[in-house]
Amino acid sequence: MSIIDKPLEQTAVLGAGTMGHGIAQLLALAGHGVCLYDPNPESLANAPLQIQASLEAFMDAGMVELQDAENCLDRIELSADLGASCQDAGLIIEAAPENLGLKLKLLSEVEALVAKDAVICSNTSAISITELCKALNDSTRFLGTHFWNPAQVIPCVELIPGPDTDPKHMDRVGEIMTHAGKEPVRLNRDIPGFLGNRLQHALQREAMSLVDNGVASPEDVDRVVRYGFGLRLALMGPIERADLGGLDTTLAVQSYLIPKLADNLEPSPKLSALVKEGKVGAKAGQGFYEWPTEKLLDRTAQRDRLLLELLKLTKGTG
Ligand code: NAD
């Protein structure tokens, strides 16, 4: 039986920050009840504003009707009470800060609060699911659900099993995600960083190394990606691209270039220095680039609008 034939789930999203509000929005748009929990009142107050703004972008793009947007908002309840948020939920998605100790503590608390048949998921970016399983007595119902920012827009969600995850829970979460319009990608086994962040951080290591070594400015590194190979990444991944480009050429380039690529085992010195100075990126007004508030709002609104257009253009292209 597909999820569409089943009653929809009551769900809980734990953490109402950058990722949590987007995950809550996509679950509620798909018809699920959502309790959005956060211990921080500021995050709880911001979440509905961010969801409202995103729903408006979906409506402007003709992808959501007014009534569906209103229903979506009605289905989301905000809470600062972890027990009340979890008690009726059949699906819990943790989207708290990327801190192993915090996640272990939270997951252990959650397990004691939820129903025996509830499925517990973590949106960790990179922490091994096997590591997080240590928080739980019963890790058969635990898996990673790795979304991409903005979670309500980007289709991919990686489903990562722990060593004991029951495949029926992977199936169930996969169905829920497909029904919500996502493109779930199921890993055969757990690996730190999963698929997407291993790929993304391989690129970031090289990008930041080029800046660290004075080969190019951050702007020029970004321009090569944006106006070069990045343009086709929405249409095909690196392996299909290698087939199209010719595997003989790919082998020749790899044989020559791989030994010359960045292989640093520590983060970029420039990245470390910026963070040490409190220049942690757009949210602090300064990172590799300067981010006055107006520029940040314009750029994120433009990103979300163009991503929705891209989604419409690429839908059904295989
Ligand atoms: P964030 O800092 O924007 O939001 C985290 C929220 O969790 C905050 O609102 C905070 O108040 C709340 N919080 C703090 N302690 C908590 C607790 N004990 N229980 C529940 N909530 C708590 O962070 P984010 O970017 O939304 O990241 C959340 C998770 O998603 C992290 O594991 C991160 O690595 C992962 N992730 C982030 C991105 C991204 O691009 N930002 C993408 C994919 C996955």
What does this structure look like?
This protein is an alpha/beta fold and 318 residues long. 49% of the residues lie in helices and 12% in strands. It has 14 helices and eight strands. The protein has helices at 20-29, 41-60, 66-75, 82-86, 100-113, 129-133, 167-179, 196-212, 218-227, 230-233, 238-245, 247-257, 269-276, 293-314, and strands spanning 10-14, 33-37, 76-79, 91-94, 119-122, 142-146, 156-161, 183-186. Strands 3-2-1-4-5-6-7-8 form an eight-stranded mixed beta sheet, sandwiched between helices. The longest helix has 22 residues, at 293-314. The radius of gyration is 21 Å and the shape is globular. Nicotinamide-adenine-dinucleotide binds next to helix 5.
- The N- and C-terminal alpha carbons lie at a distance of 26 Å
| General shape | globular
Helix and strand pattern: EHEHHEHEHEHEEHEHHHHHHH
Question: What is Rg?
Answer: 21 Å
Mean pLDDT: 95
Number of helices: 14
Bound molecules: nicotinamide-adenine-dinucleotide
Structural class by SSE content: alpha/beta
Biggest pleated-sheet summary: 8 strands, mixed
Tell me how many strands there are. 8
Report strand order across the widest sheet: 3-2-1-4-5-6-7-8
- Into which percent range does the helicity of residues fall? 40-55%
Our estimate of the beta-strand percent is 5-15%
> Please, what is the oligomeric state?
single chain
Provide the low-confidence segments as ranges. Answer: 1-5
